[in-house]
Amino acid sequence: MKSEDKKQPDLAVELDRLVHEPARLKLMSYLYLVEGADFVFLISRTGLTMGNLSAHMSKLEKAGYIKVEKEILNNRPHTMLSLTAAGRTAFESYRAGIEQIIGKF
Amino acid sequence: MKSEDKKQPDLAVELDRLVHEPARLKLMSYLYLVEGADFVFLISRTGLTMGNLSAHMSKLEKAGYIKVEKEILNNRPHTMLSLTAAGRTAFESYRAGIEQIIGKF
DNA sequence: GTAAATATGTTTGCGCTGCAAAGTTGTTTG
DNA sequence: CAAACAACTTTGCAGCGCAAACATATTTAC
Fold first, then answer.
1. Side-chain half-sphere of A72: how many Cα atoms within 13 Å?
2. How many residue pairs from chains A and B have C-beta atoms closer than 8 A?
3. Using one digit for the tens of pLDDT, what is the confidence trace for A30-58?
4. b/e per residue, B21-34, with b = 16+ CB within 10 A?
5. Whole-model pTM above 0.85?
6. Closest CA relative to residue A33, chosen from B101, B85, B23, B3
7. B98 vs A26: CA distance, rounded Å
8. Alpha-carbon dihedral of residues A53, A54, A59, A65, nearest 10 degrees?
9. Of A75, A102, B83, B97, which residue is 20 to 30 A from B75 by alpha carbon distance?
């Protein structure tokens, strides 16, 4: 490396706040592995309330990070979530960013 | 009443928001390694503005995570930051929490 | 010698956001 | 039929991070 690099703010990496928020980070982390989980299951898995899961889900959907499919199953609503390609990319890049800040695990 | 662990919400881990905030995460990550850095240097290192660094520094200090030492050096104010023992512990436990959510790197 | 620029921070104003609580819609049960 | 349940959505507000404004002391320019 050259000394012409005045400062190297390797910590100046920007983390995607949409992913960074703990509730959403948990969701995306899980969806990254399983490729599909339903609303009710995710509540028990993440410890979120229905209200909060609903709100975060909407944000992630609006951002294009997850796909939300609603259907009627056994006469009841049923909601399935899954990561989109953009969501996978966003998660991977978030992971890289955080690793850069925190260091190797 | 007695509860059996039917579900293991390994994602239900709580992240310390004081550490989680990107600006503070960067600060603590760096201080974890070097054990002492001054205000001006940290600005270039983290990409924060003076105002934001000042605010986050105050929060971390109030939380007991860092120690802030102010002196006059060459007729100018000089501020040194360093992690406290509590800060080190908090950072380590944050790291463990995030690893549990995101997975192994 | 004083006005302007520089250095090192702190404080303030406010827009955004996450969370708990309340609301919605439909179904089952007694 | 009413009350309880299931699966969500919407709302209200407190708290927070950020940019901008402010504070204070020193050095430089003229």
1. 2
2. 67
3. 999 998 999 999 999 999 999 999 999 99
4. bbbbbbbbbbbbee
5. yes
6. B101
7. 10
8. 70
9. B83
